[in-house]
Amino acid sequence: METGTLYSLAIYFIAMLGIGVYGYFKSTSDLSDYMLGGRRLTPGVTALSAGASDMSGWMLMGLPGAFYLSGFSEVWLAVGLTIGAYINYLVVAPRLRVYTYVANDSITIPDFFENRFHDKSRLLRLVSAVVIIIFFTLYTSSGLVAGGTLFENAFGMDYHHGLLLTAGVVVAYTLIGGFLAVSMTDFVQGCIMFLALIVVPVTGYYILNADTALTKETITLAPEMFNAFHGATFLGVVSLLAWGLGYFGQPHIIVRFMAIRSVRDFPKARRIGMTWMIVAIIGAMLTGIVGAQYIQAHGAGLVGNAYMKADGSLANSETIFIVLSQILFHPFISGFLLAAILAAIMSTISSQLLVTSSALTQDFYKSFLHKNASDKVQVMTGRISVLLVAIVASALSWVPRDTILGLVGNAWAGFGAAFGPLIILSLYWRGMNRWGALAGMVVGALTVLFWIYVPVLGEEPLSSKLYEMVPGVIMSTLAIFLVSRLTAAPSKQVTAEFNKMRELMQENKDE
């Protein structure tokens, strides 16, 4: 590895750990501080933290790789994500911030479900915590696979050593600094990702245009790269657009909405967040397209490079960002760009570790094992939980079994179907009760698992034809409506709190 690249990565690692130490001294005195940063995030930190924790390694590896292979036929994924994120800011964010405060100052998603429906049986808390732990452990493993793959391909390091290095740094600053450290590192990492996704495709385009007109040559060699409908089917387009439905149920994203300092900050956060997301997604798309053209034009001269096959093609499409960053730039800049991939990976892993740790601490340990645990004990339990989840996720990712985008897609669908309809309807439907909430959560999660793992079409699961998010969301929504209608209406206390939330929303709107 070049010395300049090492210096860049060393600076990045030191900065992340430094932020973790700062977060330790600023906001880990009690559980609310450790898990939600005291509900005082600024709009900018909220927006970039939500964006960076959302756009994991798939943004710089999975998405460019998909566009490298298929061109603009993958654009429907970007469209679906953009629409979903925008609606999330409008529909979910403000009401969730107000309602989690009204519902006994809930600090976790399972906490909110139990308090929202006054579920004395604790089933909602237990089941939602189980869903979070299962899907987030799998989701975290996808990030660790991305980290191991990055170190293996970019630095020639053993995959397992890279995986452990990634896990070690993330665990260190998450365990030490809690939510504030995670949010602040996400903000910095979001800025790094933003710049990298502009610099790489623009530089690649400029270098290619020094010899030939990129658009003309690309259309001559591969005209389908610019055809959004090439090879597309109706179910395929629906599947890609359906990724946007997942936003409403992602705990690591919507928990940022719970932590913002005021509802009145959301319009500014939305503008910052959506601008960041649109530019980043376009940059990822163009990285894949420009990368495909660059390899077509210069692949033969790169044979012998660790990333290339003997025929001049790329061995792994998901390494196209790494290839361009190393070929086109000085080693010091290359190190900065590779740090952007680490930023994408680590920002998501840290958020997932913290949410999973909060589920283990607040929703298992305190609720079922030690009801009178002090804040100090709970914070310590949270830190231990971060370490345990990281160990399990590392074990699951020790032997990678799928693409990064594939792993993320499964976990994304699981949360979107189990929590998405439940979150939205709990914020907008007065008549929803705890049995409907429980049914929707269970049916959504089971539908996704069935769609992914049960072979129905010969030897292929149904997910090979239609993304599991679609049936999962539909079945979850139906279960919530039907069960809520067939069982007892919500209590007067539940209805009163719902009305209070609406009144507070109106007051904020009028100001």
Automatic annotation (TrEMBL):
Keywords for this protein: Amino-acid transport, Cell inner membrane, Cell membrane, Ion transport, Membrane, Sodium, Sodium transport, Symport, Transmembrane, Transmembrane helix, Transport
GO cellular component, one term: plasma membrane
Subcellular location: Cell inner membrane; Cell membrane
Pfam families: SSF
Residue stretches spanning the membrane: 6-25, 75-92, 123-142, 162-182, 187-208, 228-248, 274-295, 377-398, 404-428, 435-454, 466-483
One biological process term in Gene Ontology: proline transport
Catalysed reaction, written as an equation: L-proline(in) + Na(+)(in) = L-proline(out) + Na(+)(out)
Keyword Transmembrane helix among record annotations: yes
InterPro entries: Na/Glc_symporter_sf, Na/Pro_symporter, Na/solute_symporter, Na/solute_symporter_CS, Sodium:Solute_Symporter
Domain of life: Bacteria
Annotated GO MF terms: L-proline transmembrane transporter activity; proline:sodium symporter activity; sodium ion binding
Membrane topology: Multi-pass membrane protein
Main location as per UniProt: membrane
Family: Belongs to the sodium:solute symporter (SSF) (TC 2.A.21) family.
Protein name, entry field: Sodium/proline symporter
